[in-house]
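Please check this.
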Amino acid sequence: MAKIFVSFLGTGVQHKDPGYDRASYNWPGKSVTTVTACFAQTAILKLLEEKAADEGPVDKVVFLCTEESKEKHLDLLREELREHLAQPPEPVVPEPLVPTDMSAANQWGWFEQLLNIVNDNDTLILDFTHGMRAVPIVFSSAIGFLQRAKGVAVVHALYAWYDVANRDKVHPIVDMRDFYVINDWAEAVSRLADDANARKIGELARTTRIEALQPLADEALIEAFEEMTDCIRNVDVNNIGKKVGLALDRVEQARNRVSGSARVMLDLVWNKFRTLATDYPPSGRYDRAYFDSQLVIIRVLLEHRLFMQAFTAMREVVGSIGMAGLSGKYSKQMKCGDGRKYRGRFAEVFVNMMQYTPEDWRFNGQAAIDKLTLTPWFETLQHAEVEPKLRQIVKPLVDTRNGFDHAWTAKAEAQKDVAEKGNVYFATLETIITQLAERRLIS
């Protein structure tokens, strides 16, 4: 794991040799030393050497050069480094040299060259001061990629701010590293919105030093995110609405006191999850509102590609359709003890009834008795033309869910069309719920 300094050696003013004026630089907040040099890189490396006892030495110095900048400035830069540094580095100049034709292919080639300089878990110092206007674009893209693909830590992203209108003043070296945490925050919010994963945003929130993002570091907000996403990923369907509602209450409070990037990220979370928040008190019964809430949950699970959870929830919706037809003593609120007990019996039997044709039913003991209780509802669904639609999807749906449950060990490989089939089964369930409501079979 090396500490690598990467800079671009430019040509400066075309008609001047060297192409840069001598100037004085300092690093406010980092050092009281002022370095006067022709090349800003000399000042930066001198100040990094001064801080080596605290931060560790730079192991490798890399200069990206064009043919012209190498010929014009590399020897002068070497000489200046020897003049100012106690232990001047020998610059590494990667080949091939950077082309001046910034075609798409050359941009990618430059980017790939930069990636090849850095190894896994290296520490990186980038200097943006000189070079073509594409330098910040390529370096910025490289930062985001290297952090994620190679575990690289960016400790400094430096720019020597030369004020041409005030040549004789001391020019500051600015460290923009903290700004690049926006890449991490963007990834964290994306994980939360796209994958229902709050871990990354929790990690960042608890360590952020960025004032603009401090509102996201609210411990209660992060805890609410974690409870919400755990509820979604664990398919805790009876509590998702409540947990999401509590989390979005926290989001709304935060949105009202922030702007800028923090507001944009909170808006993304709000827009992604608001459909899951329950806007009405649950009745505790298998009614239209209940089924609509389950469909919203399934849609979010499919969007997040949480397929095992989505297929589990769809299987449970099928069981709930069976429960909706029970009456008398078996028609209990789903959250009471008897309601949960009866669901364990009747929902499972109903799913089995939908998996096979009546000629292939094989029920014994209590299951056979429960099948008789469910038969009038089954016949009602047949007359309503709901049963054929259910039968078309239930067996393959359950087979896929069982494949997940047993890690596909009974198959040569995992099912490849899970996403496509999941969307088909979901659309069929949406149609069935609408049909049940239109025929007043659910209220």
Observations:
- The chain has three domains: 3-175, 183-276, 288-438.
